[in-house]
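Renewal narrative, Specific Aim 1. Our central claim is that a sequence can be written position by position from structural information alone. The example that follows is taken directly from our test logs and has not been curated for this report. It begins with the structure tokens describing the chain, in the order in which they were read.
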């Protein structure tokens, strides 16, 4: 008897079971058995009828998060306990769409990683990093729409600043994505934005390790001199101007930093091992900082 109470070995975890409106208890129990959710349809029916005194099962989608004993399956279905617990996920500033996909794939059964990457092929930078609460049956399209909608909402309060900027919105987001990946703390974004914008103004390559890291899917600190020799439109050591697309999804602080950069005569900067930024006006000064803080 106990064996028939236990969940089948092939119980489909993290899946949904839909009960149609007006569907009979017999039909539901048979499908539960066929789909390896219960071992015995008769036992399931008994739990529904005896314990809950009702042959009616509320229609809807039931989320089966883990293998359940037959009495628990009966309780959930008799009481209409759909078990919709929102899935909480936080995407940090500077996250790429590949990392968004990797984070969501094991959490949402109806989310398809390849589909997400296809739908977001041209939207890097416009998928706003934040904390989201998704229903467990969220589809790929629902996720994409949520991320894009939040981006639009975050842009509304700064619409006037964007319209007054010397940069277009794509340029703002691209530059903000570089600032996001180059910054080491909350307090150096405006200075980095000012230095990068200074370089742009005089036609000097940005020389940002973050754009090289994007090409190689590396951490910024892992970029080598050899990496900077690559022939790529994202190699800001070789090209002048911005790369063709954002390299990450920036947060609002980096976007605001681009809109309100710190005015500066500096052209170079580095971070020491404690994450403290050290700017320089000339390459000679920059080399001194390298020798002082990185060796």
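The sequence written for that structure reads:
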């Amino acid at each position: 008897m106990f064996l028939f109470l236990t969940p089948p070995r092939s119980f489909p975890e993290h899946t949904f079971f839909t009960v149609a409106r007006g569907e009979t208890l017999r039909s539901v129990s048979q499908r539960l058995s066929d789909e390896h959710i219960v071992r015995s349809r008769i036992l399931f029916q008994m739990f529904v009828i005896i314990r809950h005194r009702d042959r009616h099962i509320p229609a809807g989608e039931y989320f089966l998060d883990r293998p359940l004993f037959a009495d628990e399956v009966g309780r959930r279905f008799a009481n209409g306990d759909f078990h919709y617990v929102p899935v909480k996920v936080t995407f940090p500033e500077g996250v790429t769409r590949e990392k968004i996909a990797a984070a969501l794939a094991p959490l949402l059964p109806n989310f398809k990683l390849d589909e997400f990457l296809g739908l977001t092929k041209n939207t890097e930078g416009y998928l706003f990093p934040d904390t989201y609460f998704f229903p467990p049956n969220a589809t790929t399209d629902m996720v994409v729409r949520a991320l894009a909608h939040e981006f639009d909402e975050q842009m509304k309060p700064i619409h006037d600043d964007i319209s007054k900027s010397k940069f277009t919105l794509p340029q703002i987001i691209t530059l903000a994505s570089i600032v996001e990946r180059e910054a080491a703390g909350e307090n150096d974004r405006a200075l980095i934005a000012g230095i990068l914008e200074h370089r742009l103004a005089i036609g000097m390559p940005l020389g940002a390790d973050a754009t090289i890291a994007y090409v190689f899917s590396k951490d910024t600190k892992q970029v080598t001199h050899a990496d900077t020799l690559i022939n790529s439109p994202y190699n800001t050591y070789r090209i002048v101007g911005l790369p063709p697309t954002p390299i990450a999804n920036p947060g609002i602080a980096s976007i605001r930093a681009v809109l309100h950069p710190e005015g500066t005569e500096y052209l170079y900067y580095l971070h020491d091992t404690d994450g403290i930024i050290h700017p320089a006006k000339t390459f000679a000064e920059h080399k001194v900082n390298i020798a002082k803080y990185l060796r």
